[in-house]
Amino acid sequence: MSTFTLVAKYVSIPKQEHEFETLSACIQVNGPNITKVETCNTNDYTSYKKKWKEKYPKATFYEHTLITPAMVDNHTHLAMNIFRDLSHRLTKLPPNMIEDFFFHVESKLNKDDIRAFTRMGAYEAIAHGTGYVWDHYYHPRACAQGLADTGLSGCITGTLQDIYGPGSSFWQSTLEETLALHQESTWSASGVHFGLGPHATDSVSQKLWQEVTSLAQQHKFPIHFHLAQSKQEVQRIFAQHQQTPVQWLQHLGVLTAGVHLRAAHGIYLTHTDLENLRNKLSLIFCPSSAMSFAHPANINHWEHAGVNWCLGTDCAASNDSLNLLKELRIVYGWNSLQNTFNPQQENQIQKISRNALLHKVTSTASHQVPGAPVGIIEPGARANLAFWNIHHPSLWPGREWKAICLSDGNNALTQMMIQGKVFTLNMHKQDTYHAHLEEAEKRFLQVAKSTHIALT
Question: How far apart are CA 83 and CA 94, in angstroms?
Fold first, then answer.
C-alpha cells in the first residue's frame, strides 16, 4: 500500500455547509484514503512550504494547480454510450424512447458487451473530472468489471425489473449476483461497491419492491431507482392503484424503511409528493438529459419543499456527454430562464450559488456512499482528487473552484487521482485504452447489426 504526500498552494477545502475555501494544503495519502490534511492561508504558503519540505522531503509540490475533490456523478448508465450514435440514426422518434427503442437494443446486449461499453463510459467520466459514479444497469458484475478495468470508483446498482423491460427475465439472478458481489472483498479494495437498482415504480412489482427493501435493511444496501420519470409511469401506477408513484412507495413502506434511497429524475412529482419525500430520500437532477426529452423537473419546487437533491449526467444516450461541469452551468442559469418566461417573477427568483452547486456534485453525496466518503478532502475520505492547471487559458486567473466551475475547464484538467492512484489524461494514447476501444468498437458494430441499424 503506497504512501505519499502532496503539497499545493491552492486546494479546495470544505469550510461549512455549501461553502468551499481555497487554502494551501499538505495532503497525505495512504493507499486509497486521505490520512492527514494540514492547511494554511495561501498568503502564508511560502513559509509553510519550507516547513513541509523539511517535514516531508519526498512530497510532490504543485505551484500552479488547483486541487479539488474529484466529482461525483450521481446517476449514470455508463454502458449506454452506444446510443450516442444509434439514437441519431432513427428516422422517426418513437412515442416512448426508453421503452420502444432503448429496451429493444438493450435486450440484445450480453455481459461482455456491457463490460466493454462500461469501460468506455468510465474513461469518459474520468476525463471530465469524475472520480465516483452511481451506475444503474443490467448485469452488475459486468458493470463492476468495467469500472475495475479502468480504475473508476463507484456504486453499482444492478437494474431490477420483473414486470417489463430487458431485465425482467433475469431479475432473480441479478439479485443473487448483487448479494454475491457484496460478499467479495476484492471489490471494496477497488473502490467498487454495490446497491440495489429497482428500475421504476411501474416496472417492479409490489413483491419485488418489498424484497428489495428487506434486503436493503439486512445488508445496508442503498436503493437507487427512477421515480416519476415518464407520464406513462405515473398513468400506469394511478390506473392500478389510484395513487401517485410516491404514494405507492409510501404504501409499500419503502419510504419509511430506514434505508438510503436515491431517486433519479422526479419529473412528474406533485407538491404533495415533494412534501412526502422531505428527509426520506435524495432526488437526482439530470438537466441535459431531461431537456433532451423536453420534460425537465422543476427544481425550484424541490428547493421550496426542502428535498435533498444532487446532480447527475444520466447517460450519453440522452445527454451526449458525461461532463458534470456542463450540468453545473445549466443549473446555474436555470432560474434566469424564468425571468424571461415569467417577467412578473423577476425579483422573486434567486440563483443557486456556485458553492451550493459544487456541493451537488461532491459533498452532498460524501457520506452516502458505502465505505469511505467521497467528494470531500478530509482525513478518512477517499483519495479521489482532480488537478486543474490554473495557468491554462480556460481557467486563468481563477484560483478558487467557484471561480472556474462554470468554465470549459476540462482541457485544463491535468490529472486525476482515484483511490490514491494517479491517472494522466492522455489515456487515449495508451495501449490498454486502445485494446478496450478495439473490443468496444467490434461489439458496437455487432449490436448495430443485430438490431438492424445501418451504419455508414
Answer: 14
